[in-house]
Amino acid sequence: MSKIDSLTIAELMPTPESVLRQMGVPKQRINLDKVYGLTEDAIKVFSDCAEPAGLLSEISKKEFAFIYKGEGNNAKNTPLEHIFTEADNLAVYALTLGNKVSKKIEELCNSDDVALGGILDATASVAADKGAEFCEQYLLDILSNRKLLTHDICVLAYSPGYCGWHVSGQKKLFHRLKPEQIGITLNENCLMNPIKSVSGVLVAGLRAINYFKPKWNFCEICTTYSCLQRMKRLRDSAKNEKS
Amino acid sequence: MAFDKQVHYELAANSVIDGNQERAVELTQEALDNGITAKEFLDNGLISGMDVVGARFRDGDMFLPEVLLAARAMKAGMELLKPELSKTNAKSAGKVVIGTVNGDLHDVGKNIVIYMLEGAGFTVIDLGVNVAMETFISEVKQHKPDILGLSAFLTTTMPAMEKVIESLQENQLRKQVKIIVGGAPVTECFANEIGADAFAEDAGTAVIVCKKMTKNG
Q: Number of folded domains in chain A?
């Protein structure tokens, strides 16, 4: 188990464009002066109060199978249960942006500046996603240093609460990883505190093992379909490698 | 040039639509200085602007950050009107008690809903996050709201919404209050299953639904 010492705010800084995209603003509307300016303000606030910390631990498929089973609440058939069995390497991870960011969002919203608070919240969400990507790269680097990387190997993060992996899966994940050492705790409803934290499993393997069609039972109630963006990211990275 | 109320209302509505906080405050002060009542200016100027914002948001012509700026402009203007509104006991669009259910700490979505409801003229009592079932019951008893809003962001905290509704029934309070539920994992189907009156998938919809429930829409 290791703390990710190389994780800094600079690695997680979102651009105004990425924050506004996260808030549903289409590309052609991103340059609206007032909105763009407020987003830059929110990013500045974020850079002043984020205290990122991360933790990663490699595990075997057998160990992860136990974690994945969780409290027995997962959907009956999920993409991840097929994906991780085909992985070359696995690691569990957790990352937080620290308590100050969450407190600042709360403070802004309670002081009647929901506009800045709301955009800061979106900023932190984008940064947390970037944090997960940072952890993916971190594991790739570890594997690369061990000369374990072959062509078309990638790392993709999966988290409890998504794609049929029930959020109660956090309990066993926390028991194994102990993210309390970087300040993340879990409440009885499996909500992480600070809220702006991410955790899950990093799956290293062929890109192809991560591709699936979002036609599982639980997809009907999904409001994000973020799996499609994640798969697009993999396909784009494959194209970039070829070119 | 003579002061033209209609033009002034239109300018105020546009300042809200444009999210121009300074202009909204300036126009509100001018309205008060020219003898327009707070209620009249609120309804015809600021709220009228927020109505346009709500409709554009629903139609995909405005986006959340723009809506937040508009609501901020609206609220800044409203701050100037508050003293007169409270003196004249101006009737609000309705009273809403709202909170994030027990075990859940997410409040940004709820706060955006509150912001927009206030912008639409509702009186909102915010119970905050991680609100115990008993607190919802006692606050409904105390404030007698038209609407109770329940928010949850996790599948593990959604069942707490159902418990609140059951408890309202046990306490003979269910019929006196309409219930609206929302939050990332909440669906219309779930809202129906637990006996809520309405579901809103976003803040804009929440305002429209609350207006309908209070017959202001």
A: 1
- Grouping H, G, I as helix, E, B as strand and the rest as coil, residue B149 is strand
Please list, in sequence order, all residues whose beta carbon lies within 8 angstroms of the beta carbon of residue B145, skipping any fewer than 6 positions away: B94, B95, B96, B97, B125, B177
Question: Are B69 and A114 an interchain contact pair (Cβ–Cβ within 8 Å)?
Answer: no
Fold of B95-213: Rossmann fold (3.40.50)
Its domain, for residue A63, covers: 2-242
Q: State the ipTM, two decimals.
A: 0.80
Question: B149 near B96, Cβ under 8 Å?
Answer: yes
- With 60 as the cut, is the pLDDT of residue B217 above it? no
Query: Who among B20, B75, B185 is closest to A112 (CB)?
Result: B75
Each residue of A139-196: pLDDT tens digit?
999 999 988 777 778 999 999 999 999 999 999 999 999 999 999 999 988 989 999 9
Mean pLDDT of A211-237: 87
pLDDT at B12 (0 to 100) = 97
* Amino acid (one-letter) located at A230: R
| A35 to B66: CB separation less than 8 angstroms, yes or no | yes
Q: Answer yes or no: pTM beyond 0.80.
A: yes
- CB contact (8 A) between residue A115 and residue B68: yes
**Nearest-by-CA chain A residue for B76:** A112
What is the CATH number for A85?
3.40.109.40
Residue limits of CATH 3.40.50.280 in chain B: 95-213
Residue whose C-alpha is closest to residue A10's, from A36, A42, A43: A43
Chain A neighbors of B156, CB-CB under 8 A: 167-168, 189-191
Kindly report, as residue ranges, where domains of CATH 1.10.1240.10 are found in chain B: 5-88
Give the nearest chain A residue to B18 (CA atoms).
Answer: A34
CATH architecture for the domain at B5-88 = Orthogonal Bundle (1.10)
Contacts of B115 in chain A (CB under 8 A): 114
Asked if A197 and A94 count as a contact pair (C-beta separation under 8 A), the reply is yes
Q: How many A/B residue pairs have CB atoms within 8 Å? A: 87
